[in-house]
């Protein structure tokens, strides 16, 4: 596997750091999760199956657990000795906290110059907000994406996805892999300052036309991606379900309106978003006349970007995701999320075993003492 032989020491909690280190574990890295005496918080959050929380199972498979009290100097010394043999170190504390623990980059890189050290925080290590506490919702609100998530009533909605968390996870993974690649030439590690807000804002290139061109916020429901385009929006069906049109290329509009017996409406879809109300209103009326199941049959074979709005359990039961092994079941009946990074050579090998709290203390701490 691609990351075989890479040792990762992970002090992060909750979602961004644990998710990125699980992806590394899936591809062969040895990931040592350092947990406080109370354990990783997600061990205790949300619904459980077969004794473990689903959240913990989705972020900690294939890892080793080292339970330490980092306020104890002897235990911290053992951790420092273990980090001397690590390739990657990940932490997710508020800026300044690792320095107070004596686990800052300057200290660890002096002991292990080849170490790739990754800090993940809400707003980054510098700037006026660096000490401000925040989780995903607050970061999305502060960054303007909650504003973009406008409901039908014109009010902002709580985001359905922890996008700030997950973008930070992916940015951190990318940065770590770049640093490891560069280390092959220089022998030197590096320090990554990953801000969840930075990562989220970096995902807005297609949303910033009004901001960068005209110094204004978008009128959300008139924008192409959020309802202003007839061929890129959500429609209600007769049974209270919904479907989406998700491709605004003219050929799809022509195919759709031709079959609906209104070919002249296709040209309306060439207008700017926010100026397609005639086509939108026609489609709203039309889609309200049949159930979602009926529309699914109607669309079969038609070259149009469309999809039903599936309930979450429906989506995760869908055959295609199982064929792609993005959802699978282990021998104990636990369902797991699969690996999205699929290599032809040296593919990931998922170890679904979850560590018990402190399970690897005995095997890892003698190693640390011997270094």
TrEMBL record:
It comes from Microbulbifer pacificus. GO terms for molecular function: transferase activity. This is CoA transferase. Its EC number is 2.8.3.-. InterPro entries: CoA-transferase_III, CoA-Trfase_fam_III, CoA-Trfase_III_dom3_sf, CoA-Trfase_III_dom_1_sf. The lineage of its organism: Bacteria, Pseudomonadati, Pseudomonadota, Gammaproteobacteria, Cellvibrionales. Keywords: Transferase. Pfam families: CoA_transf_3.
């Amino acid at each position: 596997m691609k990351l075989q032989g890479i040792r990762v020491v992970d002090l992060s909690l909750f979602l961004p750091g644990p998710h990125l280190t699980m992806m590394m574990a899936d591809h062969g890295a040895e990931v040592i999760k350092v947990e406080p005496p109370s354990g990783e918080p997600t061990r205790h959050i949300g619904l459980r199956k077969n004794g473990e929380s689903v959240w913990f199972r989705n972020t900690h498979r294939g890892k080793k657990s080292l339970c330490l009290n980092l306020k104890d100097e002897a235990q911290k010394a053992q951790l420092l000795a273990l980090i001397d043999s690590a390739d990657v170190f990940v932490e997710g504390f508020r800026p300044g906290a690792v320095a107070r623990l004596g686990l800052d980059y300057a200290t660890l890189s002096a002991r292990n110059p080849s170490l790739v050290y990754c800090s993940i925080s809400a707003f980054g290590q510098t700037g006026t907000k660096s000490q401000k506490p925040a989780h995903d919702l607050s970061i999305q609100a502060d960054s303007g994406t909650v504003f973009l998530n406008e409901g039908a009533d014109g009010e902002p909605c709580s985001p359905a996805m922890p996008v700030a968390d997950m973008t930070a996870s992916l940015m951190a993974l990318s940065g770590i892999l770049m640093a490891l690649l560069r280390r092959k030439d220089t022998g030197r590690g590096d320090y990554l300052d990953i801000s969840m807000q930075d990562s989220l804002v970096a995902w807005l290139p297609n949303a910033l036309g009004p901001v960068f061109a005209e110094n204004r916020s978008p009128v959300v429901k008139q924008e192409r991606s959020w309802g202003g385009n007839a061929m890129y929006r959500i429609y209600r069906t007769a049974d209270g379900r919904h479907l989406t049109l998700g491709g605004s290329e003219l050929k799809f509009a022509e195919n759709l309106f031709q079959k609906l017996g209104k070919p002249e409406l296709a040209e309306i879809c060439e207008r700017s978003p926010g100026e397609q109300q005639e086509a939108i209103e026609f489609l709203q009326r039309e889609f309200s006349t049949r159930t979602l199941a009926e529309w699914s049959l109607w669309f079969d074979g038609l070259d149009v970007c469309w999809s039903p709005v599936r309930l979450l359990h429906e989506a995760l039961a869908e055959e295609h995701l199982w064929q792609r092994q993005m959802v699978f079941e282990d021998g104990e009946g636990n369902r797991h999320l699969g690996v999205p990074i699929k290599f032809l050579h040296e593919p990931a090998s998922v170890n679904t075993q979850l560590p018990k709290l402190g399970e690897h203390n005995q095997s890892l701490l003698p190693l640390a003492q011997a270094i």
